[in-house]
Design goal:
alpha/beta; Cytidine Deaminase, domain 2; globular
Length: about 190
């Protein structure tokens, strides 16, 4: 007899909430990115997922809305990239699928590594007004991750939809986290070798 789960959920590690309490709202974009990259580092150190983190912030105030970390290996769900988790948590917290709702302040997605093909695809439908990235996709690929068939002109693809993109913020800091993951023999979870 056919059977499948009627409910799917995932759980963030306890440290995420405690870690988020340490954040002080700031209008300094570099400080917001450093916070996100620190979460990626903590995810590696705690062995709770891959070397990636992302967060949703209010653009004007720098207030933290949600923090997401990569949970692919620990939750056994390939869609649980940091960006997807940050967007999902923000939408659940704000009780809307549309983060561009007029009652909300303009929101941004700050991510420790530029989005892969899946996360790139989710961004336009999330409603964020801005995307801020640190490490490049090639940095993740250099340690073995498959970033998927994302368009070469992905930034233009988002800006054409009215989503501002700022890249290369604290890139070296994020590259160091990727290197730490590689050196600690973190699992590279591609579904197949290319």
């Amino acid at each position: 007899m056919f059977s499948q789960p009627l409910s799917i959920s995932f759980q963030l590690p306890v440290w995420v909430n405690n870690f988020s309490q340490s954040y002080q709202a700031t209008t300094d974009l570099n400080q917001r990115m450093k916070f996100v990259i620190s979460a990626a580092r903590k995810n590696v150190e705690e062995e709770t997922g891959g070397p990636f983190a992302a967060a949703i912030f209010e653009i004007e105030t720098g207030k933290l809305v949600s923090l997401g970390i990569n949970l692919v290996t620990t939750q056994q769900l390939s869609i649980l990239h940091a960006e997807m988790v940050a967007i999902t948590v923000a939408q659940a917290k704000l009780k809307t699928y549309d983060l561009a709702e007029t009652s909300l302040p303009k929101l941004e997605l700050v991510t420790s590594t530029e989005p892969c093909a899946m996360c790139f695809g989710a961004i336009p439908w999330s409603g964020v007004a801005r995307v801020v990235t640190a490490a490049k996709g090639e940095d993740a690929q250099n340690i073995g991750f498959d970033e998927g068939p994302k368009p070469d002109n992905w930034i233009k693809g988002l800006t054409d939809r009215g989503i501002q993109v700022i890249d290369n913020i604290e890139r070296e800091t994020s590259q160091a986290v990727l290197k730490l993951y590689q050196e600690s023999s973190g699992h590279i979870y591609n579904s197949r070798e290319n």
